[in-house]
């Protein structure tokens, strides 16, 4: 059997097609040709949604033959091929699945293997090879398979390396790695994997732009939306001027703003991030004295100050917490941490032991027991 004949035989299962005449046009939904079931996989990369829709052939032939070891380079030949139909002639790639086009949809601009691809919908084709594959993203996502493929409609081509994989009876697409700003997707069939990477540049900027849109709708009609948006920017150290405006809105926007420990603390941090040191100190003091400042709020603020190396300021917060909420968990924990940080070890041991008697669970008990041992053996507290 020559190369073209093998490719046409492959159509029966992997890329089978019928060309109906006017009298036989399919007007109702029937099972997929070759029982190659339709499938779809989606994955979010941060705000970016990626979806691949495809028809999935299996390793077993229509006559029950086990084709293990006969898929790649045989059922699916290497290189381009002449399908014997359509307009692509001898320059027809594989449709990367069965039946209709394999379709790749992405909601935002991304990079595929480091090369840019705009948001949109694409037909996916592939040129297989023993050592290297080409993945093609075509602007034509509505044709039946590769019969009318033309390179003039390519949006992007990337080179990728196939590798041995665990046996997959049905052709599948799977997201094999997922990170906040990137993912790896792999075509898997029989004993082969063909992976390629999708990355998103400027993910934080996407979130900021999305926050602006959301604050013009329902989230912008409550203080929590403004406070959360401001806090995100402060934590990421981006968009600080606008974060200050958002923090101010969370406190005082008419009919919506709410003055509380949470909103005042965020406003104080936003003022500090914008170089307004005096204003930040005044706002933070107001937050500390606010009736909504609970023991956990003050404790967490003190721990944050310790993390930033502001030991004296942290101790003042822990002592204020003790005056406002005496003998309440975790006030004594904070005093122990604060005194340990400034070298007042006897006081730190005293309050650590008081906290140990109040510990609400085994995790906290063990942490305090370790703190006490470290203090009593003159090890620095962590």
Give an account of the 3D structure.
- With 382 residues, this protein is of the alpha+beta class.
- The protein folds into three domains: 3-199, no CATH class; 202-293; 295-377, Serine Threonine Protein Phosphatase 5, Tetratricopeptide repeat, CATH 1.25.40.10.
- The chain is built from eleven helices and ten strands.
- The chain has helices at 3-10, 203-214, 223-236, 240-252, 261-273, 277-289, 295-307, 311-324, 331-341, 345-358, 362-376; strands spanning 37-45, 48-56, 98-106, 110-112, 115-117, 120-127, 133-138, 154-160, 163-179, 182-199.
- It has a six-stranded antiparallel β-sheet with strand order 1-2-3-6-7-8, with no helix packed on it.
- The model is unreliable at 1-23 (pLDDT under 50).
Topology, pairings included?
Layout: H1 3-10, E1 37-45, E2 48-56, E3 98-106, E4 110-112, E5 115-117, E6 120-127, E7 133-138, E8 154-160, E9 163-179, E10 182-199, H2 203-214, H3 223-236, H4 240-252, H5 261-273, H6 277-289, H7 295-307, H8 311-324, H9 331-341, H10 345-358, H11 362-376
Antiparallel strand pairs: 1-2, 2-3, 3-6, 4-5, 4-10, 6-7, 7-8, 9-10
Helix pairs in contact: 2-3, 3-4, 3-5, 4-5, 5-6, 7-8, 7-9, 8-9, 9-10, 10-11
Labels describing this entry:
four-stranded antiparallel sheet, 382 residues, Serine Threonine Protein Phosphatase 5, Tetratricopeptide repeat
The fraction of residues in strands falls at 15-25%
Q: What radius of gyration results from the CA coordinates?
A: 31 Å
Helix content: 25-40%
Low-confidence region ranges: 1-23
Q: Number of domains in the coordinates?
A: 3
Give the biggest beta sheet: 6 strands, antiparallel
Strand order of the largest sheet: 1-2-3-6-7-8
Report, as a whole number of angstroms, the end-to-end distance. Answer: 73 Å
Query: Can you count the helices?
Result: 11
SSE-based structural type: alpha+beta
Note the run of SSEs as H and E: HEEEEEEEEEEHHHHHHHHHH
Mean pLDDT value:
91
Number of beta-strand segments? 10
Which shape, going by the Cα principal axes?
Answer: elongated
